[in-house]
Specification:
The chain is built from one helix and 19 strands. It is mainly beta and about 200 residues long. It folds into two domains: about 80 residues, SH3 type barrels, CATH 2.30.30; about 80 residues, SH3 type barrels. Pfam families: SH3_4.
Length: about 200
């Protein structure tokens, strides 16, 4: 759930933040090569100036609630309030103790790094997506996960990712998940971490 904070108060909005960016059109043959050069530059790996980690990259929200500000300081206005522990977020920028993030729908801004975790999670992008026993479409279906459910990401292999939804572990196709691009996920997490995820439809 995301809360929007216009002016002096916070209120809930069921809308997606649309990020507006200005563009400068420059005429003339001397600029003809710019689009290709820009594409090549964007394709090059980038690292954050603070952490030296890849940008963009995925993290998850450690806190149950986190303010998302217009700029990287406490003096900047709160534009959003993210209210879902473990939700995956994409980091696109760094400044001091602040990280510029966005969620699956594009809503975002600057969050303090203490609200974030390196533990990897994903959001299920397909309703009743099968959680399989092996990375194979013909494998046994252990469970079906509903659209929008958050799962722990344990690792990826080719186009398949091993996930944990509640107490169920299994494999899902990468195309069914949001939060698995850019950087390789970590190795399997230790047993015993109790996460409470809803929306799991068990198969019999």
């Amino acid at each position: 759930m995301i809360h929007r904070a216009p002016a002096g108060c916070l209120r809930v909005l069921c809308v997606t933040l649309v990020l507006l960016s200005g563009s400068l059109a420059v005429a003339g043959p001397a600029r003809a090569a710019d689009p290709a050069a820009r594409t090549a530059a964007e394709a090059e790996p980038r690292t954050g100036p603070v952490t030296n980690l890849p940008l963009p990259r995925f993290v998850s929200m450690k806190a149950a609630e986190g303010n998302v500000r217009r700029g990287p300081s406490l003096t900047h206005r709160i534009d959003w309030v993210f209210k879902h522990r473990n939700m995956p977020l994409e980091i696109t920028g760094e400044y001091g103790h602040w990280r510029r993030v966005r969620d699956r729908d594009g809503a975002g801004g600057w969050m303090h790094y203490s609200l974030l975790s390196g533990a990897r999670t994903v959001i299920i992008e397909e309703d009743l997506a099968p959680v399989l026993s092996q990375p194979n479409e013909d494998a046994q279906v252990r469970a079906r996960a509903e659209l929008g459910v958050i799962a722990r990401l344990e690792g990826c292999e080719n186009a398949w990712c091993r996930v944990r939804v509640g107490r169920t572990r299994g494999w899902m196709q990468e195309a069914q998940l949001w939060g698995v691009t850019h950087t390789p996920p970590p190795v399997a997490l230790p047993e015993g971490e109790a996460e409470a995820y809803s929306g799991l439809a068990m198969t019999r």
